[in-house]
Predict the structure.
Amino acid sequence: MLAAGLHLFARHGCEAVNSNRIARRAGLGIGTFYSHFTDKYALLREIQLRTLAGLQSARTKAVADAGPDPREQVRRAIAAAVRFAQLHPAAYRVTFGRERLAAKPRGPVVSESSRPTAVTLRALQQAGRLPAELDVDLAARAYLAMEVGTLLWWLEDPRRANADGLVDTLGRMHPVEMSR
Amino acid sequence: MLAAGLHLFARHGCEAVNSNRIARRAGLGIGTFYSHFTDKYALLREIQLRTLAGLQSARTKAVADAGPDPREQVRRAIAAAVRFAQLHPAAYRVTFGRERLAAKPRGPVVSESSRPTAVTLRALQQAGRLPAELDVDLAARAYLAMEVGTLLWWLEDPRRANADGLVDTLGRMHPVEMSR
Amino acid sequence: MLAAGLHLFARHGCEAVNSNRIARRAGLGIGTFYSHFTDKYALLREIQLRTLAGLQSARTKAVADAGPDPREQVRRAIAAAVRFAQLHPAAYRVTFGRERLAAKPRGPVVSESSRPTAVTLRALQQAGRLPAELDVDLAARAYLAMEVGTLLWWLEDPRRANADGLVDTLGRMHPVEMSR
Amino acid sequence: MLAAGLHLFARHGCEAVNSNRIARRAGLGIGTFYSHFTDKYALLREIQLRTLAGLQSARTKAVADAGPDPREQVRRAIAAAVRFAQLHPAAYRVTFGRERLAAKPRGPVVSESSRPTAVTLRALQQAGRLPAELDVDLAARAYLAMEVGTLLWWLEDPRRANADGLVDTLGRMHPVEMSR
DNA sequence: AATGAATGAGATTTCATTCAT
DNA sequence: TATGAATGAAATCTCATTCAT
């Protein structure tokens, strides 16, 4: 059911898909859908939460595998995100694309956090390696918007760029690169 | 009618609004709606096109007012965009937010272009002031995603940041800042 | 639409009838039903309110036509109610039958009032013509239950009794007959 | 299962309750419900039949306990009915309230009989103690409607009256009181 | 006997669109 | 040109019922 929903949401958008069709594609009855999820938004949210968990775990693992250098950690985290989007394009689009807020206000909004990036930047700033005037929270937020927006644009047509180029460009534009 | 549509699209989202309601809010009859637009997506597209034109004109004007310095041009363009979003929050959200692609595949996708930024960056690169390895097209695209994503995040709750801080942060993270 | 609803509610009961069928029987589209009533319960309530108004007006008129004698007033009022039930059997059943409370708790419950009868009885009691121990409110309420229940039973199969016999029996059992 | 059904029918009405919920409340599986009853109407009918039997037995016992005086027999029977309604309000409402006819035409309609009352009245009439013109069958029927209707009204909100007052009022209005 | 996941017919309700005025 | 009552296709959701375990 999750797979069927993911496929259809990614292909047609949440609003253009109905519970009937999801159930049918999953090879199950209509009623079965409703015995598992209260409505299609609940299914969407479930997909989003799982995707988010998967992405965060990939990022965490990548950072752990990197050494202590913040630049290297950031590079690895970006590479992990790009790889994740590449491996799970449908899930990425459904989670961060225009469906993001479609999951009606039923519980906390699903979104990635810019917190870890902000923490890293603040540490560099306090060590005097980033300009004191930089608003690290805003910079972290802006970076996240860039990464998500760029990956979504890429997934619309993967021929637009290649994974390595994306990692390189996102890496160069990450605020950690301002450090010295 | 445009104003009514803008208001309702921004407040409830395109899918949650029907043509009936738009007409009613505009103080006109239902039939009148259909004598002006083929459907609500046509109205949405019209709003988006006008918004886009307004934003581009504001940017162009800002760049023209700036001197020849690329950095200054970029600063001014960003300031213009932030001001535009601040003055027309509903229009900005309806044009670039989750409604962006809701205007069904009926004509070219409405979106801002990263072309001007790419042109500026390429000139600097050819003048040797930007690393030869930088993919300027991708960088321009990434910057645009950042700007749009950050402004949308800001408009969700304007207390999250102030306009000057946004201009400063976006300015610092613009690829033109890598130049030397 | 009212006529169609009345017919179907009386014939099959409110729960066994759907809005679709009512609209179809009225020779109108499904959507038309919903542009007039929020749901079938709203239609039911409308029918009930109209019926109640009609019955009350018939009673009032009958009492006005009677002279000053309470017994005569009661007789006439009963005769008016029986005639009303005979002329509008479907409306009577839909209003006082098992649908009475089916009109979900949306506004005050539709019911006939025992107030007028209680007022009449109290006057007689204060004039010493009815036993001081009689609870006139309860007696009025009980009489109303009897009248309604008996008429509903009669309408289930009109051959069970004839109108004159009903008026006579209800008249004899009305608490006003205890007076001396 | 009977207790669960009684509780839910009384609280929400037969149409608003589903077999699933009844089984769940009874602490049993859905399938178990269907191995005992063909559908929820069968359960309803079972409850009604048991209630009816209980009420009739209480009445019979009360009459047997009274002496040979018809008035006393009637008083006792009424007192028994009021007590029964007071002790089993849910069962009384489910049996005689708006659910009465909900038990679809599957077998004879469940209802109390006015026969015993009619028999008593006819005997009095033949002894010349009741007016020859009185339609005793109709009077018995009317009394029953009054008793049932009044008790249902009382059970909707028991503060409306007290048991003794009800017995007294119903007793005074019983046709046997016309006897001389 | 007891269970409950699975089912799908059917009821409710919405809304884009038409068309007579 | 403006109107809005009328429409019905389509989406959402419920629940009686079955059947494999």
